Amino acid sequence: MPASEISHLLQGSWGYNNAPHNDWIGLMLARDEQPSAHVTPAPMTSKLPRVGTTVFSVMSALALETGAVNLGQGFPDFDCDPRLVHAVSEAMRQGFNQYPPMSGALPLRQAIVDKIRSLYGHAYDVNDEITVTAGATQAILTAILCSVHAGDEVIVIEPAYDSYLPAIQLAGGKPVLVSMRRGPDGFSVPWDAVAAAVTPRTRMIIINSPHNPTGSVLTADDLAQLADIVRDTSILLLSDEVYEHMVYDDVPHESVCRHPELVARAFVISSFGKTYHVTGWKVGYAAAPAMLSAEFRRVHQFNVFTVNAPMQHGLAAYMLDPAPYLDVAPFYAHKRDLFRAGLEGTRFRLLPVRGTYFQCVDYSAISSQPEAEFCRWLASEIGVAAIPLSAFYDQPRESGIIRFCFAKKDQTLKAALDRLARL
């Protein structure tokens, strides 16, 4: 349509016949009829200049390229309980398709409160202390953003989940890194080193149990030592407990929720994706005292605001039966034992797995290659993808250890073991 006709329609439709307005329309139309000028965007200064493509993406791509069995990234290759899918579908049919409350659907928050009280003995307030989140990673980011100010220090225990450091940096904080120690019984937290890392600027300590990637778990004694460190300080805790239902050998999960002194200063974070084999749904939660939850929600409401409604109501209905989350530990213990038994005949040295669905192995009897190179070789030549432990450190360090994920169908694990048997 010619510019004159567009101008006429604009004037006729809205009655804007004053000269200044017509001049503005004419200028806009004239501009639009000119050849587009090349626009150079202003240079960007990255807030996360060290963040690139993760090793997880690289190894998954290599697995696809080579046809390797992918035991790298931590998600199942099997379906969830059909009853859970039915519960979500039923929630949709019942009309739960609009925004739920910012803090989360009340039935799901109540189910979370009931579960925590039943398992760990702590009673959260359903209205003021539970917030449903778009997965645990969003909960971690929000807890850090609402708590950490420019120049604050956050103690991170390495090796660590890869979202912690970027979240701290986005908040303007400074990560203070403490490395776990490896002994005959696997990895453990050196609490003396954690205590030595505390300064007047320490705002938060992040803990993760069961621990990704090492498969270690914190004990009641660990929590007692942590309590000694934070007592008489204003230090907050972020307790990443997304693998809470994957603790093996009849050992209870030592949640921060069991410890009155710690829970009073903690954001406790968990994940329905990990528990119910639905990582793609991205639904988790943060439990925290009312004062901390109020600040958490200030950020949450302008981040995601709220979370998928039918999935929240479906999860709430599904959680009326505790058996599915109580059965997670024996379910994955079987897979752990199957995988470990298959590796016994190889030259891998198996590290203990007390929790999570990850198996770390020492490959130093097989190769002297750096971890990332060994993982590339393993995928390309042996046909199994894994993740180097060095990827979980801020400054990669070589320890001759890689991580496998056994959250896979038994047939997938057996296929991987057939290939690894050559080692």
Summarize the structure in words.
This protein has 423 residues and is α/β, with parallel strands linked by helices. The protein has 2 domains: 55-74 and 326-420, Aspartate Aminotransferase, domain 1; 82-320, Type I PLP-dependent aspartate aminotransferase-like (Major domain) (Aspartate Aminotransferase, domain 2), CATH 3.40.640. The chain has helices spanning 3-14, 19-33, 55-66, 82-93, 106-120, 136-147, 164-170, 191-197, 220-230, 260-263, 272-275, 290-300, 309-318, 323-326, 328-343, 371-382, 410-420; strands at 69-70, 130-133, 153-158, 174-179, 181-183, 186-188, 202-208, 236-240, 266-271, 284-287, 349-350, 358-362, 384-385, 387-388, 401-405. The strands form 4 sheets. It has a 7-stranded mixed sheet, with helices on both faces. A 4-stranded antiparallel sheet has the order 11-12-15-14. A two-stranded parallel ribbon has the order 1-13. It is globular. Residues 1-31 have low confidence and may be disordered.
Output the CATH homologous superfamily of the largest domain: Type I PLP-dependent aspartate aminotransferase-like (Major domain)
How many strands, what sense, and barrel or not for the largest sheet? 7 strands, mixed
Share in β-strands: 5-15%
Q: What Rg do the Cα atoms give?
A: 26 Å
CATH level 3 topology of the largest domain: Aspartate Aminotransferase, domain 2
Instruction: Based on the coordinates given, report the CATH architecture of the largest domain.
Output: 3-Layer(aba) Sandwich
Structural class: alpha/beta
- Number of H- or I-type helical stretches: 17
Note the overall shape.
Answer: globular
Roughly what percent helix? 40-55%
Low-confidence stretches: 1-31
N→C terminal distance: 71 Å
Domains, number? 2
Number of strands: 15
Q: According to CATH, what is the class of the largest domain?
A: Alpha Beta
